[in-house]
């Protein structure tokens, strides 16, 4: 059906609905019939292909080659196939774990996408309800306002200055002005999408005005669905840290290949016995052992899992991450530019004061007895010139400021439903953040009356009269000054003031543009609304200061209101730290760059000013976060290093460009997200340090043992250590609670490398430490078996290998506890990491099974008569890792403390 050619009444009839919308029951039936309002997604990669992709990893290929070589050695030497079987089991297990972890990470991201899914306002059961956009069905009546994404195809049934940008469908970047009237079909041919001015389509965005549309098609039946058989998911971009680690892994691979070639050649050149095929294969296995030991297979997995776990934890704290790169950037945040209303305040507006010329200032809003005619006119104007509507409870639903105005009118006995019947709206000029006003035109018993509400200092400029209680009187400078003084008095008390004016018309206005309507107005009065400061915002601002983060407040409110609230929050101490939008507009970019650090509060700000503020801070080299909720805030959010959208009051446009969305619109949530970002990055560094130090110890052990002509560990031993002893503790470190001083440190530089803060040195000394302990363990086992310390001139020792294997396992497990804090003592940690203890117990039990269950020990080429006394010696040696690292940390803390004292002096 060509709905654009039918009248609104015929369209509603054809869709089986009316202007009150569908009932909840009927909507449920239609949802079952038509399905969810979503486009087809690209098919997920089958698990078998994911499994094959895991096997295609270069490291896994090396292991498969090692298994083949081990099998050849077993055939040639008539030996056991145990090594071959174990290596292949490890390869398969590693690939399965990779697929499982990848699936878990994917599910975590899908859960986040569901949390940040679009919502729409619809009429259901005659009431405005907020539902998920994918629950919309044909016949639903949808409310559209500036900043909303159009959720499905629909026919416009009511609009006021409605403009929709449809570039995604038509390629036309200029917004289309919409109308309600049917389009006359003269040719009988399809009218192009761009010319269907009474329709709206999924994928388009409302840029101005408001309207109602009845949904005509959903999901794959929409015009967007017709041109997209499947919505292919965009490839997830890598974070800067993942890119750096990818580069590090490639460098490590090149180094390892070089060392392996060297060791292979060295072993053949220095061989004492004749070189035969078996010797070459065994030498190759030593080189493979080195490769297995050197490459930290779990590195990329740990980072990916850490990020996915981290963003899931953030979502539970109301910070929904839309781009993984934001997690890293959050830890570097140096400036947070925040809106005032709803973010630093509760956004629970309540009218507490009103003023008009006839009755004077400070008429208590709660005292409604004997309210004057002017007071009632003021409440009527405020209620009618608002889009908020009362729900079944009688409380208004909509934008918080407008809700306060409608609730105030209800409180004084002026019900919005009754007012709408007495004053039906016949036209409007929607609110615009640049002019800071809204106008509605009404028909009252045949008389045309206009109400305008807006910022007092802007509205008063358009008033040439004032209402004295009985009639309109010419505006005088004395009255104007009095009004502005009353406005300032409200602002000084941290009240948000709004003014109302009216205008009468002999005939219906010929157009509803602001320039045509908003002049020669009659001033009615002011109302003052209180929006309490969020108690947690005060603590969050203090926490920002301690963390080296500069909080900036940006608001459209009067300067005096902004200053009063900023002082309550602790953002500023002096009014001189505040700047107005007009003062900012008079500054050149050079002047702003030079003075940006002087100001922490910006009042009466236009959306374009936000971009200048962000850019000025970025020029200072500061990592800047910016919040926003309106359609015009999208530019500043995109410009900022971290764009923060509002989940409650934010428009779809701002949420779609944001890096992070606040589910509760709370400033404290931004600060907690910064803390979580720092924790995630710290924990990833801990895991990296642990894995690199562990792999360094394995490489050095193999390297020195090969130089001395003995086998300290075999490939299967190293695979076991990398899979069991390294992987699980590394993942457990990602779950570590933040250090106590995490929000008392200055933000890290975004240019900081992976090995910053002495981590590179720590990796080297800790790797060497474990190497020496493991070699010592081998020598002790060798001595107990052969009675000599000359390991280079004796056969390979099973007891020596078992001691080395056990000590390496235990040393790396104990060392994972060291990494709970890079420089802090683990004995001062207040909370225990239950995941790390779980990894410790699991690794210990499995390692004991390998050592003490004879068939398994034999398969792993370990001693089958290994004693408890040897186990105790290995444990004692492994515990040295904690003692040595604690001593080093003590001196590191002392050195750091001395440097801090020197800097302060």
What would you say this structure looks like, in words?
Helix 27 runs antiparallel to helix 28. Strand 12 and strand 13 form a beta hairpin. It is elongated and about 115 Å long. About 1% of the residues have low confidence. 49% of the residues lie in helices and 16% in strands. The chain contains 31 helices and 26 strands. The chain is of the alpha+beta class and 905 residues long. Strands 10, 11, 14, 15, 16, 17, 18, 19 and 20 form a nine-stranded mixed beta sheet that branches. Strands 8-26-25-24-9-21-23-22 form an eight-stranded mixed beta sheet, with helices on both faces. Strands 1, 2, 3, 4, 5, 6 and 7 form a seven-stranded antiparallel beta sheet that branches.
For the biggest sheet, the summary is: 9 strands, mixed
Low-pLDDT parts are 229-236
| Residue fraction in strands | 15-25%
What is the CA–CA distance across the termini? 80 Å
Structural category is: alpha+beta
How big is the Rg? 35 Å
**Can you tell me the overall shape?**
elongated
The share of residues in helices is 40-55%
Strand tally? 26
Average the pLDDT over all residues and give the rounded result. 86
Count of discrete alpha- or pi-helical segments spanning 4 or more residues: 31
Present the secondary structure layout.
Blueprint: H1 8-14, H2 24-34, H3 47-55, H4 58-76, H5 82-115, E1 119-124, E2 127-132, E3 141-145, E4 153-165, H6 167-170, E5 176-177, E6 199-200, E7 205-217, H7 223-226, H8 240-269, H9 277-294, H10 299-316, E8 319-321, H11 325-330, E9 335-339, E10 350-356, E11 360-364, H12 373-384, E12 389-390, E13 396-397, H13 400-411, H14 416-422, E14 425-432, E15 437-444, E16 447-454, H15 456-459, E17 463-467, E18 472-474, H16 477-492, E19 495-505, H17 514-517, E20 521-530, H18 535-546, E21 550-554, H19 559-569, E22 578-580, H20 581-586, H21 589-595, E23 601-603, H22 607-619, E24 624-628, H23 634-639, E25 642-646, H24 652-657, E26 660-662, H25 667-707, H26 715-733, H27 759-786, H28 798-818, H29 834-852, H30 854-859, H31 868-904
Helix pairs in contact: 3-5, 4-5, 4-9, 5-10, 5-26, 8-9, 9-25, 9-26, 10-25, 12-13, 16-19, 18-25, 25-26, 25-27, 25-28, 26-28, 26-29, 27-28, 27-31, 28-29, 28-31
């Amino acid at each position: 059906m060509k709905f654009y050619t039918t009248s609104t009444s015929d369209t509603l009839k054809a869709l089986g609905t009316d202007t009150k919308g569908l009932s909840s029951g009927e909507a449920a039936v239609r949802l079952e019939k038509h399905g969810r309002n979503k486009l087809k997604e690209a098919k997920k990669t089958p698990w078998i292909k994911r499994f094959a992709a895991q096997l295609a990893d270069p490291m896994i290929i090396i292991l498969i080659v090692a298994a083949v070589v081990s099998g050849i050695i077993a055939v040639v030497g008539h030996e056991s196939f145990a090594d071959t079987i174990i290596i292949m089991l490890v390869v398969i297990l590693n690939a399965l774990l990779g697929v499982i972890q990848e699936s878990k990470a994917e599910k975590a991201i899908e859960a986040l996408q569901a949390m940040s899914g679009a919502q729409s306002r619809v009429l259901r059961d005659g009431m405005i309800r907020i539902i998920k956009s994918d629950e919309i069905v044909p016949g639903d009546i949808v409310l559209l306002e500036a900043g909303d994404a159009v959720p499905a195809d629909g026919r416009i049934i009511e609009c006021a200055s409605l403009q929709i940008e449809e570039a995604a469908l038509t390629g036309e970047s200029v917004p289309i002005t919409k109308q309600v009237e049917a389009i006359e079909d003269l040719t009988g041919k399809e009218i192009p999408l761009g010319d269907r001015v009474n329709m709206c389509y999924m994928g388009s965005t409302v840029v101005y005005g408001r309207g109602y549309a009845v949904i005509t098609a959903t999901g794959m039946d929409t015009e967007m669905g017709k041109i997209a058989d499947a919505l292919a998911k965009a490839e997830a971009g890598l974070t800067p840290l993942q890119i750096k680690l990818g580069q590090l892994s490639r460098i490590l691979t090149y180094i390892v290949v070089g060392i392996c070639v060297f060791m292979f050649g060295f072993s053949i050149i220095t061989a004492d016995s004749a070189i035969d095929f078996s010797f070459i294969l065994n030498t190759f296995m030593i080189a493979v052992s080195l490769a297995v030991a050197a490459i930290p297979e779990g590195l990329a997995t740990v980072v990916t899992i850490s990020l996915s776990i981290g963003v899931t934890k953030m979502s539970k704290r109301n910070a929904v991450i839309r781009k993984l790169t934001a997690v890293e950037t959050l830890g570097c945040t140096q400036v947070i530019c925040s809106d005032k209303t709803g973010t630093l305040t509760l956004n629970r507006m309540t009218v507490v004061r009103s003023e008009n010329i006839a009755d004077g200032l400070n008429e208590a809003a709660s005292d409604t007895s004997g309210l004057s005619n002017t007071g009632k006119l003021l409440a009527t104007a405020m209620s009618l010139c608002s889009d908020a509507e009362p729900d079944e409870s009688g409380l208004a639903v909509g934008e918080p400021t407008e809700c306060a105005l409608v609730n105030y009118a209800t409180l004084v006995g002026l019900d919005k439903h009754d007012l709408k019947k007495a004053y039906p709206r016949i036209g409007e000029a929607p609110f615009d953040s640049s002019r800071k006003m809204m106008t509605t035109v009404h028909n009252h018993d045949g008389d045309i009356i206009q109400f305008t509400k807006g910022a007092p200092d802007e509205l008063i400029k358009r008033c040439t009269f004032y209402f004295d209680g009985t009639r309109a009187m010419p505006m005088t400078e004395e009255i104007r000054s009095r009004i502005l003084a009353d406005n300032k008095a409200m602002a000084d008390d941290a009240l948000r003031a709004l003014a109302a004016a009216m205008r009468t018309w002999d005939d219906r206005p010929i157009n509803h543009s602001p320039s045509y309507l908003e002049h020669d107005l009659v001033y009615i009065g002011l109302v003052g609304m209180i929006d309490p400061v969020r108690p947690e915002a005060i603590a969050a601002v203090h926490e920002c200061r301690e963390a080296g983060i500069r909080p900036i407040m940006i608001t459209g409110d009067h300067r005096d209101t902004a200053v009063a609230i900023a002082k309550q929050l602790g953002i500023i101490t002096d009014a001189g730290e505040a700047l107005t939008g007009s003062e900012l507009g008079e500054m050149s970019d050079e002047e702003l760059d030079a003075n940006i650090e002087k100001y922490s509060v910006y009042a009466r700000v236009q959306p374009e000013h936000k971009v200048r503020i962000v850019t000025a801070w970025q020029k200072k080299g500061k990592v800047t976060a910016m919040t926003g909720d309106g359609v015009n805030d999208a530019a500043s959010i995109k410009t900022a290093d971290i764009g923060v959208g509002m989940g409650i009051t934010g428009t779809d446009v701002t949420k779609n460009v944001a890096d992070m969305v606040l589910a509760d619109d709370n400033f404290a949530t931004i600060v907690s997200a910064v803390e979580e970002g720092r924790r995630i990055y710290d924990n990833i560094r801990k895991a990296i340090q642990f894995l690199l130090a562990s792999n360094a110890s394995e490489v050095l052990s193999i390297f020195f043992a090969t130089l001395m002509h003995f086998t300290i560990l075999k490939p299967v031993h190293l695979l076991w250590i990398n899979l069991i002893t390294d992987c699980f503790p590394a993942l457990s470190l990602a779950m570590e609670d933040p250090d106590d001083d995490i929000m008392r440190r200055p933000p890290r530089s975004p240019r900081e490398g992976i090995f910053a803060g002495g981590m590179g040195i720590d990796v080297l000394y800790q790797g060497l430490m474990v190497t020496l302990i493991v070699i010592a363990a081998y020598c002790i086992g060798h001595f107990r078996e052969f009675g000599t310390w000359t390991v280079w001139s004796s056969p390979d020792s099973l007891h020596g290998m078992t001691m080395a294997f056990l000590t390496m396992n235990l040393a790396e497990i104990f060392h994972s506890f060291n990494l709970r804090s890079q420089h802090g003592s683990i004995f001062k940690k207040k909370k225990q990491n239950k995941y790390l203890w779980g990894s410790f117990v699991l690794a210990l039990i499995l390692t004991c099974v390998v050592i003490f269950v004879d068939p398994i020990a034999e398969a792993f080429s370990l001693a089958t008569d290994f004693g408890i006394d040897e186990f105790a010696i290995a444990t004692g040696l492994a515990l040295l890792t904690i003692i040595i690292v604690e001593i080093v940390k003590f001196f590191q803390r002392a050195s750091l403390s001395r440097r801090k004292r020197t800097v302060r002096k």
